[in-house]
Amino acid sequence: MSDKFIVGFDGSDTAQRALDFATSRAKAQGGSVLIAHVLEWSPYSFLTPTEIEERHQRRTEEMARAETAIVNPAKASVEAAGVPVETVLKFGHIAETLCKLAEKEGATQVVIGRNGHSTFGSRVFGSVAGSLVQTSPVPCTIVP
């Protein structure tokens, strides 16, 4: 079984460093990289049919933008290093989604950057890194 590194990637400088780290480890160990871009998206329970349709349209547009502007360039950089790479785009809570992906994909490690595109709120209520290291089913590497 070869190592699979899941990289939580948001396009930030620290996410790029995390991707570079995971790529070098995967190359050295004969493993692969799964680039995971997770868009925070809270579920609303009381929406009209019109609001549901508009929300679905916004989700579709955001996914297309993320794939083009963030995920595809990251994938190209891993491919250029000669490392097998896959990508996934999801909506949800970032740490929770990365944990589920790690289990589903049989990952050996999750790698993220210490500070991504976070806000003051994440510092007050808890960061992705803090949540991830407490709940991950596999070892985590937090890249500065």
Write a structural description.
With 144 residues, the protein is an alpha/beta fold. It has a single domain (4-143), classed as HUPs (Rossmann fold), CATH 3.40.50.620. It is 52% helix and 20% strand. It contains five helices and five strands, in the order βαβαβαβααβ. It has helices at 13-29, 49-80, 94-105, 120-125, 128-135; strands spanning 4-8, 32-39, 85-91, 109-113, 140-143. Strands 3-2-1-4-5 form a five-stranded parallel beta sheet, with helices on both faces. Strand 1 (4-8), helix 1 (13-29) and strand 2 form a beta-alpha-beta unit. It starts with a strand and ends with a strand. The relative contact order is 0.23. Mean pLDDT is 87; it is low at 120-125.
Concise description?
With 144 residues, this protein is α/β, with parallel strands linked by helices. The protein has helices at residues 13-29, 49-80, 94-105, 120-125, 128-135, and strands at residues 4-8, 32-39, 85-91, 109-113, 140-143.
